[in-house]
Automatic annotation (TrEMBL), chain A:
Main location: membrane
Keywords: Cell membrane, Membrane, Transmembrane, Transmembrane helix
Species annotation: Acetobacter conturbans
The organism's place on the tree of life at top rank: Bacteria
Descriptive protein name: Urea ABC transporter permease subunit UrtC
Membrane-crossing residue ranges in chain numbering: 6-27, 39-60, 66-90, 126-149, 156-174, 204-225, 255-274, 294-316, 328-348
UniProtKB/TrEMBL annotation, chain B:
Coiled coil: none
Domain of life: Bacteria
Gene that encodes the chain: urtD
GO molecular-function terms, A-Z: ATP binding
Keyword terms, alphabetized: ATP-binding, Nucleotide-binding, Transport
Entry protein name: Urea ABC transporter ATP-binding protein UrtD
Sequence ranges assigned to domain ABC transporter in this UniProt record: 7-246
PANTHER family reported for this sequence: CONSERVED COMPONENT OF ABC TRANSPORTER FOR NATURAL AMINO ACIDS-RELATED, HIGH-AFFINITY BRANCHED-CHAIN AMINO ACID TRANSPORT ATP-BINDING PROTEIN
Length: 375, 246
């Protein structure tokens, strides 16, 4: 697959396109219902979901495309970010819940809990929720990455333990006693900072905010991979042991991008929960993480823009396909992945390169086997 | 054991699954020296390099470089002390340009955080231009390293080694797969490098070793069999026996 140091240059253009298209949708949703070009609230929710998924895809591309870490558990960070935001949104319901308890969320009343567990402390304040949203996934990623990279676990073994990580979290969050709503998760949100989550203005504003955050994440990622650190990242991806003999510590390089990526995924999860209105343990399902990898493969690995493009297009396809032939979607997704691998190994972003004349000096070699450097 | 040696291996042994790859090996290198290491396959040449660079930890013995005990350090720490290594198979960063390969090799910044905010200084740009001239790759500076010929990759890797500004270079079979002309140019290049740095070269190619014209150490079954000029060792009956069969 193509992942030259040049192919992510379009990230800033993608950021502008994302913001512009989203602005059109957001404004369109605020037109009166009588207007023929009014955008329905349903479309706004979908667009918000796609942008949140694009954040997850961007996070996967950073570690898979640029550091050669095939993560099959990134939805764990996405879901943790989502739960942190969900906790705040649940507390915002206050006494408007089914049981009318101003101090305890409905599911805790239902479980006959008398007081909030300690780890819900401060969750009624948005700043605390925002800090938790970033710090918890980052800390988990740091611990996991430090252990894995220091022991030089890589390749398929690393992929398998990322799956185990997200699966273990899913099982934990399914427990009622774990304190996050069990299999129902967190839902029935009413407002955020006093703004009604069901108002078209709040929804349009949240969608536009999502686009701005995604654009910011794209630019930050481009900065990360575009400079000398990015060169080193590609060097570590392709020939890890060589970088060691140059005096670098590849485990530190991987850890840095891994934690950054986990935080991007977590922000995506928080934006998802606000706009979709529910978070439950299903978000930790291993299949979700694998889907995210497919989005990136379809869009084009190691290109940043491709991750966003892949996430939006595949999910748009999923929305249309599941409305038409719901049982067939997984077959469709599998076929898409196979077709991409066979006919478009560089993803959709590779098409652009295929149809533009390339100077010999820009011909990019295949990504070498990530295992090669660690043998 | 003299104290003015640059590198000193004494009584080093390492065993892999019962196989003694290095057996009570002792070897010293003076500052500024170039040494050729020869020996049949399995003599322990590459394992010796692995031990010096921290890739393999010896079971017993001491490896000293300046005043440091290398057996207690890992690869990046040893590389930062000033030991550079060129592998048998040329290993360059194929998806990066020749220039970027050299940039990453330059002695200096090694912390990932510092690299995040690093900008190329004029001094670094000059050092890269000098290296490009030394390794004769000026015209390919902005090409991806993956597109270079085998011989050019070997030179690029030597250039990256020089960028590290090491006191000691370990060079593993630098002329494997090179044409005769490239082989002789490489011998010239190594002699040029040796004017400022110590070099250990492992090589099978006897023409090349002759062209280097330096002290030769013959390894056999993990220890030193003979040491001296190429003529001395190639007339040594034990060396002849090892090379020509018993």
């Amino acid at each position: 697959m193509n992942a030259s140091s040049l192919s992510f240059r379009g990230a800033s253009v993608t950021a502008v396109i994302v913001v512009a298209l989203t602005a059109v949708l957001a404004i369109g949703s605020l037109l009166p219902a009588s207007s023929p070009i009014q955008i329905s609230p349903f479309v706004i929710t979908l667009a918000g979901k796609y942008l949140a998924y694009a954040m997850l895809a961007l996070a996967v591309d950073l570690v898979w495309g640029f550091a050669g870490i095939l993560t099959l558990g990134h939805a764990a960070f996405f879901a943790l970010g989502g739960y942190a935001m969900g906790m705040y949104l649940v507390r915002e319901i206050g006494a408007r819940g089914v049981y009318g308890n101003a101090d305890l969320p409905d599911f805790m009343v239902f479980l006959s809990w008398k007081s909030l567990p300690w780890y819900w402390w401060g969750s009624d304040h948005l700043p605390v929720a925002l800090i938790l949203m970033l710090v918890v996934p980052a800390a988990l990623a740091a611990l996991f990455g430090w252990l894995a990279f220091r022991s030089r676990v890589s390749g398929v073994y690393l992929s398998i333990i990322t799956q185990a990580l997200t699966y273990a979290l899913m099982l934990a969050f399914f427990q009622n006693g774990f304190g996050f709503g069990g299999n129902n998760g967190l839902t029935d949100f009413k407002d955020i900072l006093g703004f009604d989550l069901h108002s078209p203005y709040t929804r349009a504003g949240m969608l536009f905010l999502s686009a701005l955050i995604l654009a910011g994440a794209l630019l930050a990622s481009r900065y990360l991979v575009g400079g000398r650190f990015g060169r080193l990242l590609i060097a570590v991806r392709d020939a890890e042991s060589r970088t060691r003999f140059l005096g670098y510590r590849p485990e530190q390089v991987k850890l840095l991008v891994w934690v950054f990526s986990a935080m991007i995924a977590a922000i995506g999860g928080a934006l998802y929960v606000i706009q979709v209105g529910i978070i439950n343990p299903g978000e930790f399902a291993p299949a979700n993480s694998i889907e995210a990898v497919i989005w990136v493969a379809v869009g084009g690995r190691g290109t940043l823009s491709g991750a966003v493009l892949g996430a939006v297009l595949v999910n748009l396809g999923k929305t249309l396909f599941t409305a038409w032939l719901p049982e067939m979607w997984l077959y469709g997704l599998g076929a898409l992945f196979m077709a991409t691998t066979l006919f478009l190994p560089q993803g959709l972003m590779g098409l652009r390169q295929r149809f533009t004349p390339v100077r010999p000096s820009e011909v990019t070699p295949e990504v070498t086997d990530p295992e090669g450097g660690t043998a | 054991m003299s104290t003015d040696t640059l590198l000193d291996l004494s009584h080093v042994s390492v065993t892999f699954d019962g196989f003694r790859a290095i057996n009570d090996l002792s070897l010293s290198l003076m500052p500024g020296e170039m040494r050729a290491i020869v020996g049949p396959n399995g003599a322990g040449k590459t394992t010796m390099m692995d031990i010096i660079t921290g890739k393999t930890r010896p079971d017993t013995g001491v490896v000293r470089f300046h005043d440091h005990d290398l057996t207690k350090l890992d690869e990046p720490a040893i590389a930062r002390l000033g030991i550079g290594r060129k592998f048998q198979k040329p290993t360059v960063f194929e998806a990066l340009t020749v220039r970027d390969n050299l940039l990453l090799s330059l002695k200096g910044l090694r912390s990932p955080f510092a690299l995040l905010f690093a900008r190329k200084t004029n001094e670094e740009a000059d050092r890269i231009e000098n290296l490009l001239r030394t390794i004769r790759l000026g015209s390919s500076a902005d090409d991806l390293a993956g597109g270079l010929s085998h011989g050019q990759k070997q030179w690029l890797e030597i250039g990256m080694l020089l960028g590290q500004e090491p006191d000691l270079l370990l060079v593993d079979e630098p002329v494997a797969g090179m044409t005769d002309a490239e082989t002789m140019e490489t011998a010239d290049l190594l002699r040029e490098i040796n004017q400022t740095r110590s070099v250990v070269v492992v090589e099978h190619d006897m023409e090349f070793v002759r062209a280097l014209n330096v002290k030769v150490t013959v390894l056999h079954e993990g220890s030193v069999l003979a040491e001296g000029t190429l003529d001395q060792v190639s007339n040594d009956p034990r060396v002849i026996e090892v090379y020509l069969g018993r």
